[in-house]
């Protein structure tokens, strides 16, 4: 993050008539890089660029004293006479401002004469020290100690240091907070930290610039927050922020800080009215009423998710935009989706996201352009052409051939042509293709990926047989499955009966029957897609691997006027060539079902969507000095921003999900149905999820308290190591602040936070089972560990393997576009074409060229770690502990354990006895390795759902 220029409201306008601030902040990452690449953009004042380094001041520094606050003191610089009269101890406040992330944005720096002048005279940053104590005589808050800070250093690591000297009078008490006012004219500051130090002589302990930054701090406050400019000139107006020195429970808050604690929370809650501005730091709730765009296109009308019994859903951050003219329940989609200022991407993250987004979109566009875009539903003419995407790449088209993209891409294309890339763009070869180019054809790999692939949350134990639907047979047709014991026993080689296999916990299933069946006819009403309900059955063999036995596809009974009866058929592996090709096509349908379930339920709903209410409630009800807030805060990083971007381009009407995944325009409705039927908080921890699916049973004698049904289950084996590490760390942290049940039950902020999560953030589930009471340290620790697990490890498990498992789309097609050729009533022409050329029939069932390359590009983006990522247990995100040695020690143990887990995972991936993660052509399972470098690595657990 950086110190940015943010124009005031009377800034020069862009060509579209909006202020440059809203134009750039409200634009997509695609626009940001395109604008930056444009030479003409240098002549216009950008709205969001880094400042150049301010002028160094050498070793001489101006000493500015301080005075106790008063309404008139602000107009004059504090005097040396006042400070010396009050002084008992001299301290220096050292504020560190992040300036730039480097790169091409350095060339876009505007003139900043006004702000430089304020820096020169020492009036750009105003600091106030707040005493933790009340005045013993008056019982009122003590006057703050105030001082302008002056710039003393502009360091090589792109930070600028400001210092303010204070003479702290005897009896002032502990400094409990620092008030910061940004006096720049139009520049918002990203304040990294504030340290209070005892100044030393320049010849002894100060740094080369004569500053006190190198001295050992008496107090260090990590801020990592934007401070808006104080344009009004009033000390209580916008631009003044409070940063607390130490964590306190509400009942333990020092008297001198109570009003500051209360006021800061009130400011973050807002009043629930008006449209939010990008500079706001207000957190409030709304339904998902902004996915449709009926004013632009009637076909883009979508139901509101959340707030109704028909479409229950978690809440999102309120933006307050005007409502649609054609549908008063739908919010308009004008401008960027608001997130509170501190939830925005850092410049480094934005830069990486912009570059990756643009190149990914270009990679997706090039094959589409080369197919001339005559038919966006055009399939790939051969598997050879699919392989060419990775082997030879594709030549860059002329800018004029880019159609709707040429307005933003030509300059970037020219830059790429001028590079040594020889005018060729390549998709990286996914790791599964590197390992085994034909692995997607093998049943063994299909089965293995249910345990060690990108959606390991779907497989479940078969606990009852025969299978039976819970849907109304009068609507959907007979509830009984067509999968019989005879079918399964034949495929098992008659080694045992189905009854014995169920009893011995040897049968497992992907069950997408009841979730999808109500949507089959809705989805089929759309062009170029189809849908079935499906059941896929596996058998656990003696060597610990899964054998794929059978797939059942079901079309429900259809309503009038067609009034067709239910159709269902079971497909199995076969030596008959026709049946073998039907088997391959049936597997493609199931893979498309699994892709939709993964993206809409396991990934979006259970991590991105379900976590956002926790973030909003925490900021509204937990003070930033609350220990629980400090624990959770790193696990909320960037989530609201990436969710806002998803609402802009991924899950919205006409977005990438609707264009490229089987459910199409009904995708988010299906996600709502899954929330209604499947989501509950107490099943979101890893052990509880495994038990719910029958993949484990509670066993206090086992290492992790559960016994796995499949011993070689890579995701569960590694994930339980990470879950235990998280839970132990959180238990130690909670124990430090909550000695007993009374402390938990009596924490007013904590209880308000949890009540708001249940009753508002997840209000459509407030009467549902699964919400624990936060009434003991143990229940609190488990709930917090669950939230941290979901935001970090759960998300990592289903996100960062996406490209390596689905980048080669035949392995995991996002959509199945054609029906099974044997579906009744049989289309004789389609069946004849299938028999004549089954290879072509399978490719026509796959995503089109446009759909496939677009999804590949998006998965490439989503699977890539940012250079500024913060990983689980990383020391850069150690919790603000106020110097608490116990907390530091516990976190150090957490960090060490996660490093140890990395070694354990490496050892498991080299163990030939573990056939689900080690062997010829098998991609090692690394998604639960905690740490990673930037890029596409298929490992690393970020602290938060940050991409």
Automatic annotation (TrEMBL):
<dbReference type="InterPro" id="IPR020834">
    <property type="entry name" value="LipOase_CS"/>
</dbReference>
<dbReference type="InterPro" id="IPR042057">
    <property type="entry name" value="Lipoxy_PLAT/LH2"/>
</dbReference>
<feature type="compositionally biased region" description="Basic and acidic residues">
    <location>
        <begin position="262"/>
        <end position="284"/>
    </location>
</feature>
<dbReference type="InterPro" id="IPR036392">
    <property type="entry name" value="PLAT/LH2_dom_sf"/>
</dbReference>
<dbReference type="InterPro" id="IPR000907">
    <property type="entry name" value="LipOase"/>
</dbReference>
<dbReference type="GO" id="GO:0051707">
    <property type="term" value="P:response to other organism"/>
</dbReference>
<dbReference type="GO" id="GO:0006633">
    <property type="term" value="P:fatty acid biosynthetic process"/>
</dbReference>
<dbReference type="GO" id="GO:0031408">
    <property type="term" value="P:oxylipin biosynthetic process"/>
</dbReference>
<comment type="function">
    <text>Plant lipoxygenase may be involved in a number of diverse aspects of plant physiology including growth and development, pest resistance, and senescence or responses to wounding.</text>
</comment>
<dbReference type="GO" id="GO:0009611">
    <property type="term" value="P:response to wounding"/>
</dbReference>
<keyword id="KW-0479">Metal-binding</keyword>
<keyword id="KW-0408">Iron</keyword>
<dbReference type="GO" id="GO:0051213">
    <property type="term" value="F:dioxygenase activity"/>
</dbReference>
<feature type="region of interest" description="Disordered">
    <location>
        <begin position="254"/>
        <end position="337"/>
    </location>
</feature>
<dbReference type="InterPro" id="IPR020833">
    <property type="entry name" value="LipOase_Fe_BS"/>
</dbReference>
<comment type="similarity">
    <text>Belongs to the lipoxygenase family.</text>
</comment>
<dbReference type="InterPro" id="IPR001024">
    <property type="entry name" value="PLAT/LH2_dom"/>
</dbReference>
<dbReference type="Pfam" id="PF00305">
    <property type="entry name" value="Lipoxygenase"/>
</dbReference>
<feature type="domain" description="Lipoxygenase">
    <location>
        <begin position="247"/>
        <end position="947"/>
    </location>
</feature>
<dbReference type="InterPro" id="IPR036226">
    <property type="entry name" value="LipOase_C_sf"/>
</dbReference>
<keyword id="KW-0443">Lipid metabolism</keyword>
<keyword id="KW-0276">Fatty acid metabolism</keyword>
<keyword id="KW-0925">Oxylipin biosynthesis</keyword>
<feature type="compositionally biased region" description="Basic and acidic residues">
    <location>
        <begin position="324"/>
        <end position="337"/>
    </location>
</feature>
<keyword id="KW-0223">Dioxygenase</keyword>
<keyword id="KW-0275">Fatty acid biosynthesis</keyword>
<keyword id="KW-0444">Lipid biosynthesis</keyword>
<protein>
    <recommendedName>
        <fullName>Lipoxygenase</fullName>
        <ecNumber>1.13.11.-</ecNumber>
    </recommendedName>
</protein>
<comment type="pathway">
    <text>Lipid metabolism; oxylipin biosynthesis.</text>
</comment>
<dbReference type="GO" id="GO:0046872">
    <property type="term" value="F:metal ion binding"/>
</dbReference>
<feature type="domain" description="PLAT">
    <location>
        <begin position="93"/>
        <end position="241"/>
    </location>
</feature>
<dbReference type="InterPro" id="IPR001246">
    <property type="entry name" value="LipOase_plant"/>
</dbReference>
<keyword id="KW-0560">Oxidoreductase</keyword>
<dbReference type="InterPro" id="IPR027433">
    <property type="entry name" value="Lipoxygenase_dom_3"/>
</dbReference>
<dbReference type="InterPro" id="IPR013819">
    <property type="entry name" value="LipOase_C"/>
</dbReference>
């Amino acid at each position: 993050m950086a110190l940015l220029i943010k124009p005031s409201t009377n800034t020069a306008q862009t060509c579209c008539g909006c202020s440059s601030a809203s134009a750039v902040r409200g634009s997509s990452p695609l626009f940001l890089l395109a604008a930056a690449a444009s030479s003409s953009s240098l002549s216009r004042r950008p709205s969001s660029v880094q400042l150049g380094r301010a002028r160094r001041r050498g070793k001489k520094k101006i000493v500015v004293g301080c005075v106790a606050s008063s309404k008139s003191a602000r107009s004059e610089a504090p005097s040396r006479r006042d400070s010396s009269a009050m002084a008992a101890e001299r301290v220096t406040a050292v504020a560190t401002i992040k300036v730039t992330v480097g790169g091409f944005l350095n060339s876009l720096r505007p003139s900043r004469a006004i702000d430089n002048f304020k820096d020169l005279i020492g009036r750009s940053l105003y600091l106030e020290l707040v005493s933790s104590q009340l005045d013993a005589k008056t019982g009122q808050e003590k006057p703050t100690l105030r001082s302008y800070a002056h710039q003393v250093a502009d360091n090589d690591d792109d930070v600028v240091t400001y210092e303010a000297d204070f003479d702290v009078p005897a009896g002032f008490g502990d400094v409990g907070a620092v008030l910061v006012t940004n006096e720049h004219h139009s520049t918002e500051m990203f304040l990294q930290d504030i340290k209070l130090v005892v100044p030393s002589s320049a010849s002894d302990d100060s740094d080369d610039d004569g500053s006190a930054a190198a001295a050992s701090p008496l107090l260090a406050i990590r801020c990592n927050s934007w401070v808006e400019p104080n344009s009004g000139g009033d000390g209580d107006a916008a631009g003044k922020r409070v940063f607390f020195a130490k964590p306190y429970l509400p009942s333990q808050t020092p008297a001198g800080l109570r009003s500051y604690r209360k006021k800061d929370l009130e400011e973050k809650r807002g009043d629930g009215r008006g449209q939010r501005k990008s500079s706001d730091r207000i957190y409030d709730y709304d339904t998902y009423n902004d996915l449709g765009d009926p004013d632009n296109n009637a076909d883009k009308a979508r139901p509101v998710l959340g707030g109704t019994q028909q479409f229950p859903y978690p809440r999102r951050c309120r933006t307050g935009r005007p409502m649609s003219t054609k549908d008063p329940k739908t919010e308009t989609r004008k401008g960027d989706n608001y997130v509170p200022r501190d939830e925005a991407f850092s410049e480094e993250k934005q830069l990486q996201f912009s570059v990756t987004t643009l190149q990914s979109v270009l990679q997706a566009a090039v094959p589409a352009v080369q197919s001339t875009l005559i038919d966006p539903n055009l399939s790939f003419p051969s598997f050879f052409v699919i392989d060419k995407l990775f082997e030879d790449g594709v030549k860059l088209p002329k800018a004029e051939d880019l159609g709707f993209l040429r307005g933003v891409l030509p300059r970037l294309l020219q830059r790429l042509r001028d590079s040594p890339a020889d005018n060729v763009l390549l998709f990286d070869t996914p790791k599964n293709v590197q390992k085994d180019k034909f692995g997607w054809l093998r049943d063994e790999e299909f089965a293995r990926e249910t345990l060690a692939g990108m959606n390991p949350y779907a497989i479940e134990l078969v606990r009852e047989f025969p299978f039976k639907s819970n849907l109304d047979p009068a609507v959907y047709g007979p509830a009984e499955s067509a999968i019989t014991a005879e079918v399964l026993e034949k495929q098992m080689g008659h080694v045992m009966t189905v009854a014995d296999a169920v009893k011995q916990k040897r049968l497992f299933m992907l069950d997408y029957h009841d979730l999808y069946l109500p949507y089959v006819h809705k989805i089929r009403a759309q062009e170029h897609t189809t849908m079935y309900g499906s059941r896929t059955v596996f058998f656990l063999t003696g060597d610990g691997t899964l054998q794929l036995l059978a797939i059942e596809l079901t079309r429900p009974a259809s309503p009038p006027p067609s009034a067709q009866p239910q159709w269902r058929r079971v497909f199995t592996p076969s030596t008959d060539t026709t049946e073998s090709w039907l088997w391959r096509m049936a597997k493609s349908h199931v893979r498309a079902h699994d892709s939709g379930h993964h993206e809409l339920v396991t990934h979006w709903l259970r991590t991105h969507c379900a976590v956002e209410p926790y973030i909003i409630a925490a900021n509204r009800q937990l003070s930033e000095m609350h220990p629980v807030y400090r624990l959770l805060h790193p696990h909320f990083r960037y989530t609201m921003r990436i969710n806002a971007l998803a609402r802009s381009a991924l899950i919205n009407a006409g977005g990438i999900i609707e264009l490229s995944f089987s459910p199409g325009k009904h995708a988010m409705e299906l996600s709502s149905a899954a929330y209604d039927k499947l989501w509950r908080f107490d099943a979101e921890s890893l052990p509880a999820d495994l038990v719910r699916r029958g993949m484990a049973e509670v066993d206090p004698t086992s290492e992790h308290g559960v016994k796995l049904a499949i011993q070689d289950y890579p995701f569960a084996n590694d994930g339980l190591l990470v879950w235990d590490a998280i839970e132990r760390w959180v238990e130690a942290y909670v124990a430090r602040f909550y000695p007993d049940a009374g402390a938990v039950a009596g924490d007013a902020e904590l209880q308000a936070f949890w009540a708001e999560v249940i009753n508002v953030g997840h209000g459509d589930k407030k009467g549902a089972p699964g919400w624990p009471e936060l009434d003991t340290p143990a229940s609190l620790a488990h709930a917090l560990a669950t939230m941290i697990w979901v935001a970090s490890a759960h998300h990592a498990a289903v996100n960062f393997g996406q490209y390596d498992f689905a980048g080669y789309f035949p392995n995991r097609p996002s959509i199945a576009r054609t029906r099974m050729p044997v579906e009744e009533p049989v289309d004789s022409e389609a069946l004849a074409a299938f028999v004549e050329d089954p290879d072509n029939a399978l490719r026509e069932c796959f995503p089109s060229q446009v759909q496939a390359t677009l999804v590949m590009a998006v998965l490439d983006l989503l699977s890539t770690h940012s250079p500024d990522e913060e990983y689980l247990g990383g020391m850069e995100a150690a919790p603000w502990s106020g110097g608490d040695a116990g907390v530091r020690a516990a976190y150090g143990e957490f960090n060490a354990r996660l490093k140890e887990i990395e070694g354990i995972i490496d050892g498991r991936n080299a163990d030939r006895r573990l056939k689900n993660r080690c062997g010829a052509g098998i991609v090692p399972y690394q998604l639960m390795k905690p740490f990673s470098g930037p890029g596409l690595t298929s490992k690393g657990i970020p602290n938060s759902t940050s991409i």
